[in-house]
## 1
Amino acid sequence: MLTPHRQDTNSLYLTERLNALGVAVAFKTIVGDNLQHLSDAARIALHRADIVIFSGGLGPTEDDLTREAVAAALCIGLSRSPEILTAMYKRFAERRVSMPENNAKQADVLDGADVLQNNNGSAPGQWLDTVVDGHRKIVILLPGPPKELMPLFTEACEPRLAASLPERHFAKRWLRIALMPESKVDAIAAPIYQTYTDVESTILSSAAEIQLHFLCAKPTLAEAQQRVDELTSKVEDALDEAVFSSQGEPLEEIILLRLQMRGLTLATAESITGGMVASRLTGVAGHSDTYIGGAVTYSAHLKKKFAGVSDEILKQHGTVSDQAARALAEGIREQTGASIGLAVTGVAGPGPLLDTDSIEKPCGLVFVAVSDGVSTESLQKTFTGDRDRIRTFAAQQALDLLRQKLI
Amino acid sequence: MLTPHRQDTNSLYLTERLNALGVAVAFKTIVGDNLQHLSDAARIALHRADIVIFSGGLGPTEDDLTREAVAAALCIGLSRSPEILTAMYKRFAERRVSMPENNAKQADVLDGADVLQNNNGSAPGQWLDTVVDGHRKIVILLPGPPKELMPLFTEACEPRLAASLPERHFAKRWLRIALMPESKVDAIAAPIYQTYTDVESTILSSAAEIQLHFLCAKPTLAEAQQRVDELTSKVEDALDEAVFSSQGEPLEEIILLRLQMRGLTLATAESITGGMVASRLTGVAGHSDTYIGGAVTYSAHLKKKFAGVSDEILKQHGTVSDQAARALAEGIREQTGASIGLAVTGVAGPGPLLDTDSIEKPCGLVFVAVSDGVSTESLQKTFTGDRDRIRTFAAQQALDLLRQKLI
């Protein structure tokens, strides 16, 4: 965890679960495998917080020092548990291998601690309810691998923590908004959510999308739900059609559900995004009757071959043009027999594109179009950033144009 | 940083840059916006380490307490810098807005510290070379937003840190391996890299890919490069054709470069991956003459329409079959006029597929095929995991089959 490559997923997971129990995380510390450093960190943590969770360092090697460090910080002893030891010998015997000597230290338990059986690995967890300087402290030791830590915390620790805390119920809602700047979303949403001081509001920004999370804790679930629903619907009204999901579904799933409800089918023709729209649509399970596929019309030749775009349009307006986008949407619809055709073309960069013989199209210029056989709608946008960002925004814009058409 | 949603990218960045300077990171601590908590954490950190970097908490609000906390921990004062204050007033005046009173605290500088000018935001950084308990300590204050922290560290801090440390030169190489289990890669590579105790070896596992990173530090660059090159080439020989890149290029770029060198063009027909292979190929800039596009043949209808797969094959063998994969690869090649056709079909799940009228194909079953007009090669695989994982592995397998054909 002290290398540049490891994302700290355990602490994010624990934070989410603890917050859901109404416990705020006040400190996180990452320490190397050194007994002095570890016991110092344990001592500091035990004075800072009421609940201290240690993860990792419970294995059989000499680097696994969490048990010893916590014992030293609490000035208590460690006893080797004959039950754990027997179970370990048994497990090795079943596999017909003799247990290496160093494994025995995994049976060392803090004085007074309960053992938390680990069904996904060899090192058990530990739970100690104790008193430090006159204050009650809950000390939890968990194994480091996420596949062991997560079930052990959820199954063995959460019910005990919940029983130790005042009863509270949590309600949560979230809104997803496409292609709007974070500052604009917040300018609309903040004046509303700031009046709900009992609801925790979080705004998150990811690729071409903003999410608003609302969390409320109350003595009863009905109270919490009522507050969070009331706030969510006010913010949704204010943001209006910019909100594509109020239950957390991704944009492509919302689109597929709307198409399915109306018995419509969809095909795509992608140039700049080269399959990104298609791969998002095919990432949702159970919709192969709605999204039938399409073409990656990267070359001019395939724009003609698979989407029937005319030489005239390509010569007169270029491959990156409103006319080409509209022809792609209409053409892919006709060629595939789908009810709706969706198309996107643009310049992903780096640098501009010399389109047709003479006209230079700037990097970031994107055209999207959607056609249902009766009418064709299109949109021109210019996105900034690198190739990845421009393509991600172009795909999001194509999907959002279709969503708007389906409202 | 104490919420479940924020990945701690700053500390990973700083760790990478510090490691490159030969500095190991011994502790990381995350603290909330509370003066007592912050100054306690600062005090502990100053006793633990020789270099202490603080990020965030340098803004104008009441929650921005890093300057005050570090001053308290070091028992030194803060002075308001007239130069910074004047520059701030000037900047606000240029925008014709009056400066809010609270902004002035951004001009507070630790006694004895040098100001690090921030060209990407309003809060300047600070550098203090001091002595605590008879030991030299370097204390660095950096703004929290990554877009401000990263350039300020690279430009203003790295040269100064390098000048304070013994001279060392670093050489780095990395190998990328597709579709081999981490344990198998390590079983082959570990006996070799373990004999190079002066090279730091790291094995990283991501979606359908393993990476081996080798880093060596020596008094001269030539020495470091020689050691890391020697190790890399030994490991590459042992792993043989499984290594697709020894300079870090992604698999799709390696393929496009090989095709380009031979003047070949490529088209794809994707069923299970629904555009993932195409979007990886189109993610690489400058290869639109090599990868011309293709089809997302999600429905049986489009397998026939765009890749000329016969009704007979689909009825007799089903859409998920070796025969269908081969017909897709051959068909997309013929329909598009590309030199090479690449195809993938399979069951992404969840659950099996009732293919043709009677035969059930299991979730995870994947067929890939590649055709150059002379011969067609194909491969059958069964991948485990969820829909995302199966599709990711299927796309990687399709690309890797093509790479093998191009060797």
## 2
Amino acid sequence: MGTDVLRRLSDHEDLDGVRRWLDENPPHVIADELARMDAVSAMVPFRLLPKDRALAVFEELEPVDQQQLLMGLRDQAFGDLVEAMDPDDRARMLHEAPAKVARRVLAGLSPDEQRMTAALLGYPEGSVGRVMTPEAVTLPRHLTAGQALEVVRERGAGAETVYTLPVVDGERRLVGVTGLRELFLAPAGRPVAELTDTGVARVRATESAEDAARLMRETNLLGLPVVDSEDRLVGLLTIDDAVEVIEAADTEDAARQSGADPWPGHYMFASVWQLARSRAVWLLLLIVAATLTVNVLQIFEATLEEVTALALFIPLLVGTGGNAGAQAATATVRALAVGEVRGSDLLRVVWRECRVGLLLGAMLAAVGMVVGTVLVGGDIALVVAVSLVIICSWAATVGGVMPLLAKRLRIDPAVVSAPMVTTLVDASGLIIYFLTARAVLGV
Amino acid sequence: MGTDVLRRLSDHEDLDGVRRWLDENPPHVIADELARMDAVSAMVPFRLLPKDRALAVFEELEPVDQQQLLMGLRDQAFGDLVEAMDPDDRARMLHEAPAKVARRVLAGLSPDEQRMTAALLGYPEGSVGRVMTPEAVTLPRHLTAGQALEVVRERGAGAETVYTLPVVDGERRLVGVTGLRELFLAPAGRPVAELTDTGVARVRATESAEDAARLMRETNLLGLPVVDSEDRLVGLLTIDDAVEVIEAADTEDAARQSGADPWPGHYMFASVWQLARSRAVWLLLLIVAATLTVNVLQIFEATLEEVTALALFIPLLVGTGGNAGAQAATATVRALAVGEVRGSDLLRVVWRECRVGLLLGAMLAAVGMVVGTVLVGGDIALVVAVSLVIICSWAATVGGVMPLLAKRLRIDPAVVSAPMVTTLVDASGLIIYFLTARAVLGV
């Protein structure tokens, strides 16, 4: 994959080169290159794409990028593109768009598409309703396989998928699902009811999209039926959308775990201001929390003045405690995300992490003893070694427990992970260190 | 979902209760509960499952858990289960199994299944070949839609999927793909060649499974054709396997980013020893690296003895530098993983992160100035504020660049992320702090 070829061709106004490059590359590669260009220069190659290719490329873009491209288009091209989008993709883009864009988009839609989009936008943010497709091909339960195949033949062309076919009763309540494969491989006279998996998982439209997507991963479904509070079918979560939901959730978790909000859109395209803003609040909170370490050290200032050598090991101890805490926090955040740990496991996690921390602390204490003895002498080395054992098991316990406590308090566990734990452990680690020093050195 | 109901029922030897619970719950929930029990107690409920349900549950388990369950089964049940597994799932389990288990499994297979499994195991670890399904239904390019549907009807029942149908030429070379939907909705006489997407993405069996899975996410495919070096079709990567590959890769990245190896199997089931082992190496490496901070402080020991108050801000500065570095490192690791940043973006990332760090540093300096003045006085407050600006922009730059350098050196970028960066930034941050102190205070 040539790096930035498209940008270079555009910059040199080599339109033939741009056309050739667009012909030779698949939509997702073109979308990737467009996302790396600024909105104005991305318009040039985008306008050169034939209509159907333009749609394919457009669908691969992130909502932020879609919206910026749209604003550069004239009414006709704008309307065509917006009308052709899948309703769920359109809803996702509209949600992030400024009101001005949203109004222009909605005004340009056919009444049918307008209705579907408005319905999706009515669901809460982060819910399945927002990302599902409302265009499922549903089958009445009383059909035969042959009749059902006729329904698919009639209505399949317009639907996002025909591989998951919800089966419903007379009140549009979900009975189960079948699929094109099951219908196609069965004798034509076989009742659809016999080919229907009635035990299939289902979710409410208002439930969390991330939970629904992880459920799909666990159950290996290509489409998960979405129902309303009366069990009536309202849509399908398709696997490609579920994969995007999982990836977005993992990106968000990764950002949160480093003490930052997820940055908006493409990393290379986000402005320096946007990147700084996504990190500023956390960094501020953390530095305010870190002033606690200054207070702690002030309390022990007399000890510190008496034995300055104690200061030498502050970064090492604070750093190691932070690392041990971060390891434990990351492990439980991830285990919670993929469903291996539940809120009710709190006490068991405390007990596990405390022992893991003790083991690790004992191992590190040996290193600390050697390093300390070589660099400053046996007394302080002993203080460092003993502190390491206590700090490690304390840090691992705090790190393991905080995400579970957050989960119980209905806060995103990723929020209270690595940096939060580290900062907490820093101050308490210093207290442990100086109390140990006082006890061992008798100062 | 009741918590640990199954375990409690088993512990009380309430077999009727266990049977009822097994009847009422879907396979993925049963698998989840079994994974939370130890191997011996999990055997009891597993043996109570009817044969087809047992297979469904077995397929939902992680390879480690599968292998432990298998070892508790008698030959007949063992053979049935192993023969019925999908070849790619079997290969994955065998790869992690001890040689004794692997031999017993391979010996019990039919020659056909044995051949397929051996072929998959011949591909390198982490490659697409290991996780693809070799059982695709391929269509010769010269068929009509109607003839192709006949092929699917004949061979579809045994295949993992019929929704992605690779089209091949006389030498089994991949021409493109079509799907059951396209064939089914087309007139029977239409040539398959006209229904084939010849521009479809394809990967070599030896390429990275993670890259292939991310490509599937980008292209929204349900099945990605896998070819050998001569472009002959050897299998299909199906979307459900791709989702698992992505989730496993993200779990691994999350662990690596906190300075730990991924723990083996289920978090609650891994032993305390296993958890400690997955973190020990990194923690040791990091503490050895952290002794650098002791050396740095020794160099400035005279300054520290003269102005003990300088010691008060060491954890705050070191912590903030670490946080700023971790934020940048996590952002670029993730951006690399999802393909938003490439190795060639190195200089642009340096320039972005350096400015982001400066902005953040300036903001934090204001806080540092206030806190410092209140707690210790203006002079040291000025030292802290100036140090914060320099440390933040340095930390963000190092954090942003290290993962890209790692990528260029073909090391997993996640390995050199948060804790590694933090430890590096700790020592250099102290140098910045004390040099600033000397300059400002004139000591």
## 3
Amino acid sequence: MIIIGIDTAIRKTGYGVIDMRTNGSFRILDCGLIRNAASLPHSECLRRLAGGIRELVSSFKPEAASIESAFVSRNVKTAMILSLARGAVITALAECGVPAFEYSPKSAKRAATGLGEADKSQVASIMANLGGLDVSQIPDDATDALALAFCHGNLALRSAGGLVRPPVPI
Amino acid sequence: MIIIGIDTAIRKTGYGVIDMRTNGSFRILDCGLIRNAASLPHSECLRRLAGGIRELVSSFKPEAASIESAFVSRNVKTAMILSLARGAVITALAECGVPAFEYSPKSAKRAATGLGEADKSQVASIMANLGGLDVSQIPDDATDALALAFCHGNLALRSAGGLVRPPVPI
């Protein structure tokens, strides 16, 4: 089961594509960043973001996408700009027919490391280890995206085994 | 100059397409609503919204889009859902190469009626009159979209005449 994890932000979106095996192990197919220079207007950031997601979907044909749930920031303006970017990502996924599932950063980290409060380097080293990569090959901001993909893969396997209810796409 | 005005919302997005003449009058080419049933998940609402905007752009080839600026609601959750929908709309416009300009509802109403606090029926009757339509032909929720389109057209004309600075796309 191929899953794309996406850690969305207007300027720097991390992604990670994994091939989840039925025994719970996985292989990392790709991970990286979609960057938008600070000088770009929002409309261009959203266009590049949606285009990047479409390219990844067309290359890897994921069965599902796992994205970070919207957190309610105390800074409303920040939350609204993040939501614009999430809108671009969810639209691109929906247009490609890829169901999107939301998980909190805490759930993703807990699934990946057993700890909801793990830091980026802990997540990276565990993901690299499980995914059969050298940790130096994982860009810093792609670790959370890999953890999101793994979190969904894990839940999908457990629900297929009847252990938990199947997750509902957004 | 053909302009599309869009009053975005996740469940009911109003649109209005006008052909603005250099003398400041205009013709209404189309106006209506993109509706999403309450039962649809967000991802499907965004897909339908982006698809609807693309269809309108391909039919009318607008030179510019005029959208409502994001208001900072006291309800953060509402603001975030509206921003998702705005993300879908701005992405679709950017992918079609249509520059988008933002105006507050107040600016749009003031441009249309001279009053920032005008109600929907006042906006509708003035827009119908200026745009050469019977007011009964304008759906209720499309009036704000028509006012947004007119607001941008007005400003574009004034800036072309050197009276004000040209508006900056988002």
